[in-house]
Design brief:
The chain has 361 residues and is of the alpha+beta class. Helices cover 34% and strands 17% of the residues. The protein has two domains: 2-290, q2cbj1_9rhob like domain (Jelly Rolls); 300-357, no CATH class. It has twelve helices and 13 strands. The strands form two sheets. Strands 1, 2, 3, 4, 5, 6, 9, 11, 12 and 13 form a ten-stranded mixed beta sheet that branches. A three-stranded antiparallel beta sheet has the order 8-7-10, with no helix packed on it. The longest helix is centred in the N-terminal third of the chain and has 16 residues, at 2-17. The chain starts with a helix and ends with a helix.
Length: 361
């Protein structure tokens, strides 16, 4: 019964996608009910011209200022040199200038900068998300890109599943014009209707050692078996894409590395999973941000304590396999000292809690 219902909905979905005028009407509709119906059926929603040229220019200028004054940024973290020989994560204030020429992302910039915080918590945007999710949204992380991610097709629930299934959405705010040559985002409408992939532990959050095997095979299989149609998002500055937690998506290859593709990606959980006021930062007007650890800069004085603690524990192979291959337990404890003080195995903590909480390492 479920399979037949899903097949019928997918067939109706692909028929609907042949009607470009219908897509344009819904995307620009002020009718929340129509937008929600479209989102529920397709797994995404496009808001054309949502942010003004002035706000886009303000964000671009602020990104330039962050780079110019990065030595003053004590808390921002950057993931650098994607696709290069030595990718890594470091304090933004220590980032060499040349890494800006390559694919990078600034982590949780909304916690540090008002301009980007105001974009991802814009009142109109939060209201739309509230309708789509059926609950109050709160920002749980943000990723600021200057170039396309070139990330393969994936589900966000691999990395940050909500406690309550499907109570998560993401937004992609365009700060540049996106073309075929600067690595546009791609997505598969209707893929959110397909039952999620379960890793060997029986859950949807990724075991990183299984991403290139079982998960990749599952993705290839559902694309072929359900005849999923790949769509490419080529927005103008100020456009916004919202997608469902289970929408299959990724980043196209960059054909012209000289082109920027500036964008702010944010993920939202809801007050269903974080009902207590102390779990959230209240920005007013029902705009909320997840309250989480933000001690990003390693205090060298603490490293002796970290090393002494690590010498007393032995991580299980299951926990080690479940975290990213580049996971640094020393940095994780130094940046998340509540874990250190609690005397908790960092590998297990990240697998069971830290990944979902968006903790850095």
């Amino acid at each position: 019964m479920l399979k037949n219902l899903m097949s019928t909905r997918l067939l109706r979905l692909f028929s609907r996608h042949s009607d470009v005028s219908a897509l344009a009407r819904v995307a620009s509709s002020p009718d929340n009910a129509e937008q929600k119906n479209f989102f529920d059926e397709n797994g995404y929603l496009i808001l054309r011209g949502f942010f003004s040229e002035q706000r886009v220019m303000q964000a671009r200028q602020r990104l330039d200022a962050l780079w110019r004054d990065r030595a003053e940024q004590q808390n921002l973290v950057i993931d650098t040199y994607f696709g290069q020989p030595n990718p890594g994560r470091m304090a933004f204030r220590k980032a060499p200038a040349d890494c800006r020429q390559f694919v990078y992302k600034l982590m949780d910039v909304h916690l540090e900068d008002e301009v980007f915080r105001d974009l991802c918590t814009d009142g109109r945007l939060m209201q739309i998300l509230r309708v789509l999710l059926g609950a109050h949204p709160l920002v749980c992380n943000s990723l600021l890109f200057e170039r396309g991610s070139q990330q393969g097709a994936h589900f966000d629930t691999f990395f940050m599943p909500s406690k309550t299934p499907n109570m998560m959405a993401a937004t992609w705010i365009a700060l540049d014009r996106v073309t075929d040559t600067n690595g546009p985002l791609f997505y598969y409408p209707g893929s959110h209707l397909i039952p999620p992939y379960l890793f060997s532990h029986g859950r949807i959050e990724a075991i990183f050692s299984e991403l290139e095997t079982g998960a990749a095979a599952h993705i290839a299989d559902i694309i072929e078996r359900h005849h999923l149609k790949r769509e490419v998002f080529k927005p103008e500055p100020g456009d916004v894409l919202i997608w469902h937690a289970q929408l299959l998506h990724g980043g196209s290859p960059i054909a012209n590395p000289m082109e920027t593709r500036r964008s702010l990606v944010s993920h939202y959980w809801t007050d269903v999973d974080f009902p207590e006021p102390e779990q959230r930062i209240d920005l007013g007007d029902e705009r909320w941000v997840l309250r989480k650890s933000h001690q990003y800069v390693i205090d060298e004085d603490i490293m002796a304590e970290v090393d002494a603690f690590l010498a007393t524990i032995s991580a299980s192979p299951q926990d080690v396999q479940a975290v990213p291959g580049t996971f640094d337990a020393r940095k994780y404890l130094a940046w998340n000292q509540d874990v250190l003080r609690a005397g908790v195995d960092p590998w297990r903590h990240y697998r069971e809690h830290g990944q979902a909480q968006g903790r850095v390492w």
